[in-house]
Amino acid sequence: MSSPTMIMLKHTALWGGGIIGLGVILYNFTVPTDEELLSRMSPEIRADVEKHRELRQQEQKVLMDIAKKTAASDKPIWQTGELYNPWEGTGNKLLIDKINFEKEQAENKLKNELEALKEQQKKLK
């Protein structure tokens, strides 16, 4: 007693739901977590990822600041961003200057080591 339209809608809902469900199940069973991905990497690549993690986090922070500033502006999005525009050649190509970032990291590490040595020297006196 169903009309052909209702039958077609039921079939569409059934097949669509099945495809979406299959996609979710396949995604959950095939995509590794970040920890699994890192554990499968070679030690050299893992060390490189760990070395540049703080740089990527800093880049994400800068990108979020730019997005917030752009969202608060009344100008169109293509006029407000500080990101590099390849068509006009404007903006900064790098969000964070990698060389200066690495220099700052090395300086901070040396300062921390120096402070630790000074504390050890005070304990020895």
Automatic annotation (TrEMBL):
GO terms for biological process: mitochondrial respiratory chain complex III assembly. InterPro entries: Cbp4. Pfam families: CBP4. The keyword Kinase does not apply. Keywords: Chaperone, Coiled coil, Membrane, Mitochondrion, Mitochondrion inner membrane, Transmembrane, Transmembrane helix. The chain crosses the membrane at residues 12-31. It is a single-pass membrane protein. It is found in: Mitochondrion inner membrane. Residues 96-123 form a coiled coil. One of its GO terms (cellular component) is mitochondrial inner membrane. PANTHER family: ASSEMBLY FACTOR CBP4 (PTHR28202:SF1). Essential for the assembly of ubiquinol-cytochrome c reductase. It has a direct effect on the correct occurrence of the Rieske protein, core 4, core 5 and apocytochrome b. Belongs to the CBP4 family. This is Cytochrome b mRNA-processing protein 4.
